[in-house]
Amino acid sequence: MRTIPAASVVSLFIVSVLAQAAQPTQSSSSHPLVSANPTSECQLTGAPAMPLDVVIFTHDKGDAKNARFTGMTTGLTVVDLPETMPRRAHVVSGTGRGGFAIDGWVNAETLPLYATTNLPVVAGHVWISGSQRVEFEGRQHNQVRVQRTTTSPFSQSFSASTTCNNLSLVPVTTPPQDIPKFARGYSLDHNELAISNDPKGDSTFKLVRSTITSSVFLYGMEKKDDWVHLRYFGVVGIDAWAKLSDVRLLPKGERVDEYIPTNQADSGRLRVVESGRVVTVTERVQVRLRPSPDAPVIGEIEPATETLVLDVAAGWASVLPKGLNVAPPGDRQFWVEARKVGIVSKNSRESAP
Q1: Whole-model pTM?
Q2: I want to staple 306 with a disulfide (CB 3.0 to 4.6 A). Which of 116, 203, 320, 322 is the partner?
Q3: Strand-pair partners of 271
Q4: Are 246 and 194 in contact, with CB atoms under 8 Å apart?
């Protein structure tokens, strides 16, 4: 976990900011930054833990940045997935209440996607199992193409097309697989195995055994001539036919060992050591990257958000979400009108709440 003092978030150029900051305007946002988009063909909502330092870009092209993720859990809406290059997805952070809603674009491959059901690779015969993490490959209208790359016991990529309804931004639990009770065990010892939809049929898919495991355990359901009906349950599922000569029949009750890789370690989180004032925002407050009404609005603070006020400059406040669901890009800062977060200027007769 990376720890930074809140004070370090404040720019070293604060003196020039004090001199240049323009007085805030009276405008504010009265509606949520994002809502259900009836024209979107693929919208996802959840609260994933986005990897540390994944950038929220200002546009679908270019290098301008609005914010970055911190490795913490954050509300996130994927407004739409891309159909063309560059492959950036339109996203908005936050849930509508209690966070910073930052509007922008992320590289689509950084989105955590999970299958909520079995995703067909070869319809009815090869699939990516439900609950598995998948990677975005592309989209055409309402069809999303995803991929799962395995290292053991198979060393290959499995691709499937599905709708957004079958994808989630957070891990899901699916019903357990129906493991056969009276099937015989078979072992794949060769480097490859051609499988078919029917006995004596043409090969429809090729399985590639990983070099880090010596064999793959398969369930044999039935035999027909010199073919056997096989099933496999794991990150991917198999229900297909193969030649008996390509697999080895195991003695009853015997099973081969397979190497199953462990999950990768957490990518890290950013944590702030609080050294500012915490206020709870009661209305939507526009967020900018410069303390000026001319600066573009990149998002908003949602109602009921605990907000850390780091500094005040000429009517503007430098802020962070206490929950740190997002952070400014690089050495930039999030700026809001100070009065919107309950900070009253010193020459005002009113006192801050």
Answers
A1: 0.83
A2: 322
A3: 3
A4: yes
